[in-house]
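Standup notes, protein team

Yesterday: finished cleaning the Clostridium grantii DSM 8605 set.
Today: tRNA nucleotidyltransferase (CCA-adding enzyme) structure.
Blockers: none.

Input for tRNA nucleotidyltransferase (CCA-adding enzyme):
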Amino acid sequence: MNFNIEIPKIPELAIKMLLDSGFEAGVVGGCTRDALMGKVPHDWDICTSATPQEIQSVFKNFKMILMGLKHGTVVVLIDKENIEITTYRIDGDYSDGRRPDTVCFTRSLIEDLSRRDYTQNAIFYNETQGIIDPFNGRADIEDKVLKCVGNPDIRLKEDALRIIRGLRFASKLGFEVEKSTKIAMFNNKELLSKVSQERITVEFVKLLQGQNAMNVLDEFQEIIAYIIPETKAMMGFQQHNPYHCYDVWQHTLVALSNCNNLIEKLTMFFHDIGKPSCFTLDARGVGHFYKHPQVSFEITTKIFKRMKFTTAEGINSNDLKDILELIKYHDYPIEPKKNIIKKVLSKLNGNLVQFERLLSVKKADALAQAPDKLNHRLKEIQEIELIFHEVIKDSPCTTIKDLAITGSDLINLGIPVGEQIGKILKALLEQVINEQVSNEKDILLKEAGKYL
């Protein structure tokens, strides 16, 4: 069946210039896959039978970036748009389990497609030839199946990152991993030790954001435990608590599935990672996890540093601080009372967005607990949310910097410079939050005078 892919003007021009020069050229990889799935591709990768030198000759009147030349890639700047063009190639051995030792250029499209990772990414298209799909990738897309090109064991041994990349595809696209590919993934998971933490983290973060993340994380527990060993203790760990109907791992996955953004998803993935090490069983046989938010915070801090999370797309150091703070306070009790809400806001340094995230985290947590407790928990969160919006209308004083007096005022009052200044300001803030005194300078100075 014929299929027409609408290639944007600039990539289409680059393909036409190569075709007019007597070479074969077209789009390949993720852009072709996305187009076949009815999605709008973000990047258009072009492959061609032209050698790197011939590509340079075709585009001699354009500015080019030649940094990827040894792998056959030339980036051509056309109307301020970077167009990546790569020569058909055959990869040599992968002795380091990541990159080919040698690259040989070829005129054969089929040889080029046969080196690619998954069948969905080994589909070529141009307007003249139509779709060229020697590995039935289009049928796999229609069947929602993820399958390696050729022998999956060989394919994954060549580059172990393809394992996590494959799980990311399965999560994002909602595909089922084909049996032989799945077996090869499990059998070769130890090769992930050859892959940099940065690359693994990038793929893992994308995996978490996929529509099928919950199922993929559950089905491939062994691989997740290999890249994040701290998660292994969570898997199958029974909670023995009336508030919980899942083990720690299943609870985590269900909670994750109820989050809408990356910060919340990362929070829920790690929020209970400290539970197994905090577990105690009381005389009635009820399980408890005292101080698990703090332990989870500490474990996750180490994981973020080890896995270099700031290299992942869409994550920065401030996001990581927010995630760690949410983990730390995810189980902190909040009552639907103004002064309690102000206290929590104070702990969050007055960050209104972070407070709303905390409520979302608590909701996701509740949705992954025993259903007989759910209605009460959700109703309470809803009440807290309503009162929170009432509170912020008045621009409440929730941090020391919001106080109507400063440390200088206390010094002028006669209080000596030192730790006492901070302690007094903190005590005054608490009184304001509890509505024991008003946040007015004269009143606060009078109250501070009691410390003289």
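Follow-up from PR in the comments: The longest helix spans residues 374-393.
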